[in-house]
Structures are given as C-alpha cells and as structure tokens.
C-alpha cells in the first residue's frame, strides 16, 4: 500500500513524496545569479545562507564543461551554452548534434527529475513559455524540442495552476491584441 503524502506544518511542505522544482533550462543560469545576488554583501558562505536562498542556488546552479575549455572569441556567455548545434551532413541536410556533456552538466537535471517526481513545481512564466531544447522521449516518441507546458501536461496525470487568474491575465497580455475574424477587414 502506498501511503499518501501528508502536510507537515513544522517544515511547511509535503512529507513522503518526491517533489522537484522545475526551471526552464534556458532560465536556470539567470535564476541562480538572481538567487546568489541575495547573498551579495553579506559575506555568508552558501552553507550558512538562509534555507530558502541555499535551496534556490543548489537547485538552479550548474557548470558547463565546454565553457571551461574555451577562451577568447570561442567562449560564450554564461547561460547561452551551445547544448545543441545544427550542422549540415554530406547531402546538405540539417543535422542536430548534442553536446557530449549534456547528461553530466546539470543544466537539464530538472527535466530528468521531472520524469520520476510525483509532484513538480514551476512558475507561470516557465509553464507558459519555457522550452526544452534537447531530445526528450514523450509518449513513446522522441521530440527534439518541446515546450515545458506540453512536456508537463503529457507527463502529469493532474495539473494544478495556483493563482489561475494571474496566469490567464499574463497569457492575455502576452497575446497582445486580439482581433475577431468577424470584425477584420480583407
């Protein structure tokens, strides 16, 4: 018998369940910097940081082995790692190559953790517009690129959107103007 998770007020979380945060891979670098910036000027090592900040940094920071090997004009900006490269094969057909370190760098650890977690927590922006730009198997098919929203909806049997009115509002704002077909002019 599987025991359901229980809410533990003393620690403010569910106990007995696998929970993972989910940040879009392309946003993790900036999120880690923003979280670490909250410690700036305090002179506090990460192990002595407040629990919430330490959790954010530990669950968002990663290292790129390729970046450590490049210098000068070959180097790239942090958070802009070339995890996939498109090149042409012998017949000029586009071919995608995946970084050999992608499984070890940690940038995509949230994607991997989400496949086994019972509870996945993400924010509105990630759910609405985040992208996973590495091959992922979903419903028996390998997808080279997939939106975070589609990935999580296909993976989960149940999705809860907290503050759904704010989610809808931001979605409508992102759409810009909506012109009805009945009022449009040819």
Write up what this structure looks like.
- With 186 residues, the protein is of the alpha+beta class.
- The chain has a domain at 6-122.
- It has helices spanning 28-37, 51-58, 65-69, 109-114, 124-129, 148-155, 164-175; strands spanning 6-8, 13-15, 19-21, 84-88, 94-98, 119-121, 131-132, 136-138, 141-143, 146-147.
- The strands form five sheets. It has a two-stranded antiparallel sheet with strand order 1-2.
- Strand 1 (6-8) and strand 2 (13-15) form a beta hairpin.
- Helix 1 packs antiparallel against helix 2 (51-58).
- The longest helix is centred in the last third of the chain and has 12 residues, at 164-175.
- The chain starts with 5 loop residues before the first strand and ends in an 11-residue tail after the last helix.
- The mean pLDDT is 77.
Beta-strand share of residues = 15-25%
SS content category: alpha+beta
Mean pLDDT: 77
Helix content: 25-40%
The main sheet orders its strands as: 1-2
Shape: globular
Question: Helix count, per DSSP?
Answer: 7
- N-to-C SSE series? EEEHHHEEHEHEEEEHH
What's the layout of helices and strands?
Elements: E1 6-8, E2 13-15, E3 19-21, H1 28-37, H2 51-58, H3 65-69, E4 84-88, E5 94-98, H4 109-114, E6 119-121, H5 124-129, E7 131-132, E8 136-138, E9 141-143, E10 146-147, H6 148-155, H7 164-175
Parallel strand pairs: 3-6
Antiparallel strand pairs: 1-2, 4-5, 7-10, 8-9
Helix pairs in contact: 1-2
Properties at a glance:
single chain; 10 strands; 7 helices; two-stranded parallel ribbon; 186 residues
Please give a quick description of this structure.
By secondary structure, this protein is an alpha+beta fold. The chain has helices at 28-37, 51-58, 65-69, 109-114, 124-129, 148-155, 164-175; strands at residues 6-8, 13-15, 19-21, 84-88, 94-98, 119-121, 131-132, 136-138, 141-143, 146-147.
